[in-house]
Recover the amino acids of this structure.
């Protein structure tokens, strides 16, 4: 009997030990979970406080417009206290900001906001954001007229028209129109003609991403910037007047015979992979007959026949703006970030000619090119059969495209140029912004068959440059906003 009582006591003690161990483990786990929950709550508060700091600083910049005009009244660092709606305070955001400038003109502001909660100051969260105007580099295409993307088009990135869009191609992002409806005629493949069509319609497969009645993007505002850009380039950047070359405000060499305000002369710029630019004065061109929807058949003076070197120059590192007061041909390998503007203060509106391939030396976001023409950006007849162009291409007053050329009839090109009429492949990495309808492929006959231009075309949106574009890339809105947001 005593032996049995001893066993019972031992069992009771064992079970009590096990129960105590389990109870301790459960209690410890409960306390750990409670502590973990408090840490999560504190970290979430820190994140919200950091976000409040970003919003405060955005409010500060909106109410201090001089910061984005000339950099004056800039405040950094700053502290923003976040109040508890029920009384007291929740914590504070420690804010630092940096202005990115080009030619001494603010381009955007990078903001860092670190949230600190009073309930756990050791658990901080840091957010980084960029405050800038949205730029044309955020789009694959922006067109100011009705546009037709054919079934052979493969478009990567947002596509916008201030008019109507017939989208028969493939798109992987938004396709937007500023109109609800438009009149689609035979030039857009509509039969019967003059049909009232939705703002975006067609046989493309990405209709779930089509949008209508979206805000217009102003091409007039882009033109309004030419005078300011001319001044910035003259003082701080690179300026080709038509008779002289200036770099960082200093004339390079002597004057030469004028090449500005003349469709048959101009400059040729060759980008070198070391960051320099070789400048040629184009003194003569050969013409062929070309056709576009604006001029009809006309003499096309886009083939360089005579030129002379003016030297090799490196634009200032803090002002990659090149203003050309004449027609300009460009090609080469870009290293660094540059913006070329071809514009004239008089009645002449110069074109930009993409004479050959345009490539980047690096693809990490440190290299980029924006090309702005007061009139058109054209690919001339003697372009490569397989052509690659990288950049943001803005035809402010004209069109982006390639004229129609023919090997027969009264407007035929000389036989030595016959092989250039029909080219193989055009690949674009970046953005195309065109006031008039875009066209790099021409169809002839009925039904239409390929007869001129590039038979295969691929458009690739440059995501890296979308929020870090070259200086003075045209904005698509006058309003500043947060365009980048991430946690450090």
């Amino acid at each position: 009997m005593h032996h049995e009582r001893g066993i019972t006591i031992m069992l009771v003690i064992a079970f009590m030990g096990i129960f105590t161990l389990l109870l301790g483990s459960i209690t410890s786990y409960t306390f750990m979970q409670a502590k973990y929950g408090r840490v999560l709550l504190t970290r979430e508060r820190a994140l919200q406080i950091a976000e409040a700091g970003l919003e405060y600083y955005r409010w500060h910049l909106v109410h201090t417009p001089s910061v984005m005009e000339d950099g004056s009244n800039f405040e950094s660092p700053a502290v923003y206290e976040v109040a508890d709606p029920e009384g007291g305070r929740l914590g504070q955001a420690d804010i630092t900001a940096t202005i990115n400038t080009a030619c001494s003109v603010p381009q955007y502001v990078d903001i860092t906001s670190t949230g600190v909660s009073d309930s756990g100051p050791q658990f901080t969260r840091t957010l980084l954001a960029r405050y800038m105007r949205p730029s044309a580099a955020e789009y694959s295409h922006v067109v100011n007229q009705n546009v037709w993307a054919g079934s052979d088009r493969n478009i990567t990135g947002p596509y916008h028209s201030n008019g109507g869009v017939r989208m028969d191609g493939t798109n992987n992002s938004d396709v937007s129109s500023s109109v609800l409806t438009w009149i689609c005629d035979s030039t857009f493949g509509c039969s019967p003609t003059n049909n009232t069509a939705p703002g975006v319609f067609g046989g493309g497969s990405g209709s779930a991403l089509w949008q209508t009645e979206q805000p217009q993007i102003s091409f007039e505002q882009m033109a309004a910037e030419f005078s300011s850009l001319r001044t910035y380039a003259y003082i701080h950047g690179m300026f080709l007047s038509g008779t002289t070359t200036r770099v960082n405000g200093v004339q390079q060499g002597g004057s030469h015979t004028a090449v500005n305000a003349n469709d048959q002369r101009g400059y040729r710029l060759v980008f070198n992979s070391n960051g320099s630019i070789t400048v040629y004065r184009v003194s003569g061109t050969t013409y062929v007959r070309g056709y576009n929807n604006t001029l009809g058949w006309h003499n096309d003076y886009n083939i360089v026949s005579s030129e002379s070197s003016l030297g090799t120059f490196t634009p200032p590192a803090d002002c990659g703006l090149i203003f050309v007061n004449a027609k300009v041909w460009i090609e080469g390998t870009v290293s660094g970030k540059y913006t070329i503007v071809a514009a004239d203060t008089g009645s002449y509106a110069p074109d930009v000619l993409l004479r050959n391939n345009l490539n980047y030396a690096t693809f990490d976001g440190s290299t980029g090119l924006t090309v702005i023409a007061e009139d058109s950006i054209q690919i001339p007849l003697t372009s490569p059969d397989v052509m690659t162009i990288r950049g943001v291409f803005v035809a402010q007053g004209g069109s982006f495209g390639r004229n129609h050329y023919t090997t027969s009839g009264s407007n035929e090109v000389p036989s030595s140029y016959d092989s250039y009429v029909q080219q193989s492949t055009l690949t674009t990495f970046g953005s195309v912004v065109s006031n008039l309808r875009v066209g790099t492929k021409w169809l002839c006959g009925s039904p239409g068959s390929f007869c001129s231009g590039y038979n295969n075309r691929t458009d690739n949106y440059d995501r890296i440059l979308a929020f870090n574009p070259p200086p003075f890339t045209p904005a698509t809105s006058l309003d500043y906003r947060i365009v980048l947001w991430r946690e450090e």
In short: The CA atoms of residues 310 and 375 lie 25 Å apart. The longest strand covers residues 296-313. The helical segments are 2-62, 66-70, 219-224, 226-235, 418-421, 463-466.
